[in-house]
Specification:
With 171 residues, this protein is mainly alpha-helical. It has helices spanning 17-31, 41-56, 66-75, 89-92, 97-113, 149-169, and strands at residues 6-7, 13-14, 124-129, 141-146. The model has no long low-confidence stretch (mean pLDDT 86).
């Protein structure tokens, strides 16, 4: 449902969609949990060394196959919003052989290189009103991020493998 109007910091009523979008952008930028959490070079280096040691002893980079990818696709929830790429889970669930081969290739590229595409870290932020909140106050909305469905699929494969490794090594 569209937001009809928001009250600005000076008490004026903003009704222009571009002004409303800017007010939400400012609000969510202030509320972002990631602000100021940049890793130092030492932290980044330690994470890279740990990841290299862990992946040497795991199946994280073993290529996937049609069966594993299709199993993760079947676990995806229907009726979820598409992210910036416009892909819905139902589209992946059509189980086209060509689409499955493409998803296996993308997943294997991520597993092989350890590179997560930057575009997958970009989401569409949708404001949802908090229960009982003032719908004209940006502070009474929470933002949800709509991410790429394909990135969620690859994340699911990696997450299951990492979880299995942690459970078997008591990590």
């Amino acid at each position: 449902k569209a937001v009809g109007a928001l009250v600005t910091a000076d008490g004026a009523l903003a009704t222009d969609p571009k002004r409303i979008a800017e007010l939400f952008r400012q609000h969510f930028a202030r509320e972002s949990a990631a602000d100021g959490l940049a890793l130092s070079d030492a932290d980044t280096s330690l994470l890279q060394q740990t990841a290299a040691a862990a992946t040497a002893a795991t199946n994280l980079r073993v290529p996937t196959n049609d069966g594993e990818v299709r199993r993760h696709i079947r676990k995806m929830k229907n009726r979820k919003a598409a992210g910036p790429d416009g892909t819905y889970p139902e589209l992946l669930k059509m189980e086209s052989d060509a689409a499955t081969r493409a998803l296996v290739a993308v997943t294997n590229a991520v597993l092989r290189t350890g590179h997560w595409p930057k575009a997958w870290g970009v989401g569409d932020i949708v404001p949802l009103p908090k229960a009982g909140g003032n719908r004209q106050c940006a502070g009474d909305y929470r933002g949800i991020s709509l991410l790429s469905v394909v990135s969620k699929l690859v994340e699911s494969v990696v997450n299951e493998r990492l979880t299995n490794w942690l459970e078997t090594t008591n990590g």
